[in-house]
Amino acid sequence: MHKTMKISTALLRFLIVCQKCHAEKVPCPDLQETCKCSRNAIDCEFTLRIEERFSFVSYEVNEASGTLGNRGTLYYKNNLGFHHRGIVDDDKCAFNEVLYRDEQFRQRGCSMPITLDGNTYRTIITINGRIPGPTLVVHENQIVVVHVINRLPDAATSVHWHGLHQGKSVWMDGVGGITHPPIDPGSSFDYIFEANPPGTHWYHSHVGSQKGDGLFGAFIVCEKIPLHKILDDQTYQHVIDLFGNHTIAATDWQRKPEATHQALSGIRFFPKASLGVVPSLNHEPVKPKKGVDDFTQSPFPFWSALINGRGQRDDCSPIEHFHHVSINEHSIHAHADRPSWCTAGA
Ligand SMILES: [Cu+2]
Fold first, then answer.
1. Does some domain include residue 22?
2. Rounded to the nearest whole angstrom, what is the distance from the C-alpha of residue 203 to the centroid of ligand 1?
3. Domain for residue 68, yes or no?
4. How far is the CA of 211 from the centre of ligand 1 (A)?
5. How far is the CA of 158 from the centre of ligand 1 (A)?
6. Residue 77 in domain
7. How many Cα neighbours within 13 Å face the side chain of 297?
8. Distance (Å) from CA 123 to ligand 1 centroid
């Protein structure tokens, strides 16, 4: 008995050591755009921290736990930078000087306000402090482990891995309430699955309409064989793969959270009714439109759109930076139901 125990302890220790030698814990700190696992790793581990915040609000950051304080300070932003809208004596993150960059807020122990389309003030859902969440990059057939921590105050969540086949792990598909019970607020869940097929996929919440509030990001599975071994030298010279710059995550952005949920649940969306006011008989609901392929398009009037979490609403609100993408001989066609324009001089 004693001998058996000794053998099993040794075996367990071997398995743990072996597990460690194959596993790569990919660091994915707040605000990092791309979190990439090495090609030679067998297991790739990521951590996604899901939080609720307000846009345009700076929060106190607890460096030890990585969590945000409950209180925040509202900021207004123009071309000069951020101007606080709180009371300086009372608010830890209200600064007299005009700040502009993330480091300036960080040095003072506060998070930089998230501006998104430049002027829509509402609750949002962030993943590792970002919208969209970080782009996760793995390689074909690697075992992916994603620790999802739900720090939302009052909502359960799940993460669906869109495009991943999950052939050997259907219970890891991340459809909350169907393939597994959703992750309660204050708890966590580990998704473990094999990365295939290769391609550019995405991950998003599969509970309510959280994906429309920010809970989404890109998930890239690289081919097992490196591109330089597949392509001839001449073609390879023209292939530059910068995951951070070349991945485009586009979304429409609504003026309030859970808007998709409201429209799709049959409650409808009444654009002329003021926020927080019950629509009267004078308020017309928006009728969903049909696209060219008879597919029902968004049941909302266009409010604004984000590309990699950045946008600009129709008053020419400032944008910090924007990706410039050019692809030789390929055109990108973007279409909006009601495009918004910058007015001259704004
Ligand atoms: Cu999906």
1. no
2. 7
3. yes
4. 9
5. 12
6. yes
7. 15
8. 22
Percent of the chain surpassing pLDDT 90: 45
Q: How far is the CA of 245 from the centre of ligand 1 (A)?
A: 22
Per-residue confidence (pLDDT) for residue 158, from 0 to 100: 97
Quote the pTM value: 0.82
The contacts found for 127-130 with CB under 8 angstroms, 24 or more apart, are 127/48, 127/49, 127/50, 127/214, 127/215, 127/217, 128/28, 128/29, 128/30, 128/31, 128/32, 128/47, 128/48, 128/49, 129/30, 129/31, 129/49, 129/51, 130/30, 130/31, 130/33, 130/217, 130/309
In SS3 terms, 198-266 reads as CEEEEEEECCCCHHHHCCEEEEEEECCCCHHHHCCHHHHCCCCCCHHHHCCCEEEECCCCCHHHHHHCC
Q: How far does the centroid of ligand 1 lie from the alpha carbon of residue 164, in Å?
A: 10
Domain that holds residue 86: 56-113
Tokens of 88: 């300086």
Interval between CA 11 and ligand 1 midpoint (Å): 40
Rounded average pLDDT over 225-235: 78
Q: How many domains does one find in the chain?
A: 1
Has residue 83 got a pLDDT over 80?
yes
pLDDT digits (tens, 9 = 90+) for 302-334: 788 888 898 887 666 666 555 555 555 555 555
Residue 90: inside a domain, yes or no?
yes
71-75, 81-85, 124-128, 297-301: which range is least confident on average?
A: 297-301
Residue 73, judged by CB atoms within 10 A of its CB (0-12, 13-18, 19+), counts as: buried
The single-letter code of the amino acid at 295 is F
Positive/negative CA dihedral, 56, 35, 192, 5: negative
Interval between CA 206 and ligand 1 midpoint (Å): 8
Distance 260 CA to ligand 1 centre (A): 15
Q: Calculate how far, in angstroms, residue 190's C-alpha sits from the geometric centre of ligand 1.
A: 19
Query: What's the 278 CA to ligand 1 centre distance in angstroms?
Result: 32
